[in-house]
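Take a look at this chain, tokens included, and explain the fold to me:
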Amino acid sequence: MTFGRNAQIASAFGALAALVLAAEPSLAATPVPNKGDTAFVMSSTVLVLLMTIPGLALFYGGLVRTKNMLSVLMQVMSIVCLVSIIWVIYGYSMAFTNGGSLNNWVGGFSKIFLSGVTAESVVGTFSNGVVIPEYVFICFQMTFACITPALIVGAFAERIKFSALMLFVALWVTFVYFPIAHMVWYWAGPDAVGDAAKAVAAATGDAKKTAEAALEAVTLDAGQIFQWGAIDFAGGTVVHINAGIAGLVGALMIGRRVGYGREAMPPHSLTMTMIGAALLWVGWFGFNAGSNLEANGTAALAMINTFVATAAAGLSWMLIEWAAKGKPSLLGLASGVVAGLVAVTPASGFAGPMGSIVLGLVAGVVCFVFVTSVKNALGYDDSLDVFGVHAIGGILGAIGTGILASPDFGGTGILDYASKPGEAVVAAYDVMTQVINQSKAVGLTILWSGIGSAILYAVVNVVVGLRPVEEKEREGLDVTSHGERAYNY
């Protein structure tokens, strides 16, 4: 999802521009954003914000005890405010510009404070010659940057200092989220690849060698995971595995809640949790379909996959819980719905609807096992099951995408922008190769997020301390951290 081009690449094949334009005069025209695509991504951006506030806030808030309801709402909304400002100051630049010698891992600062971005600036989509306003893309990606650290909150809910959380989030998005977003989604864009490929096709002799080198340089103008060939349509690695692993590390380093395993800690309002889960599902259409950046058939594919995978996961969780515990619960159904949304995210624009149903059915069962049996066996206190749902669902979805994207299983395959310059055609697809690529992406995300998060938690603990004293935790964070109560009777 990216679209920067650096000066070195431009100069590498700039000498061939006149030759290409002579053969294709239409290339000289600057693409103009389509109003329908622009409106579609703007609407999707609002839907993703809806996922976080109030969707995620209510989903998490309903799951904690009454004395901590307001603290969770406060944490989620504060994260949105904090990350929005960080994003426009330097986050967007770190994620979606060329990082020079570090470009495989992170972007640079050429667009710090949104330098050079105007109302006329555009970025490419996934089709040759199709663009949207850059401000729209910045806002859309901002909502992803906001929701990802907000997801982490659920892993150590009810037992973290507010100051520690704010400091951790500022550091985490800087050193973990922005680099992973760059590694997965940054590339030169379809037009840069298409133009370089056209230059190769039009050149002869020594000029052809120069053009081929320029094409290779354009292809390598991408993050490391993108260069590996891994695909992630809407954030299985960037958002869910990333947040889930950071959440698990946080839960382990902060420790269990006071009374965990000895005192009952039921959700205080499953009604609010259901409202939050429903808002997440509604907003997720912006998350998945909007990631196509165009209002076309692929966006429609992502939309139907977001329907059916989610429904399948909700049903499969409900049924296995019914069989295991004797009764189906609303909490289980809502958890299954979220697990399905997580699992289908990386596959949403690549898998076919029937493949997405299978993915959802598997995700519901696997995440149920991790949230119940595995969690109980290992004894860690992941308060709201961020690891069991987001990390495990994200891993399942990311690797499953390598299988389900295959045209042999009803998927779309992966587009090739170079073999027929100026057109996007489906490349030859090898399932095993793609699964290996997906697994490498998952492994790097786990290591980067796990190690990076552990270091940052340790730094925060030294600076401000991670956890409130036991008396404050017992009284509840609503009063002790914010001087308010969620409910006054």
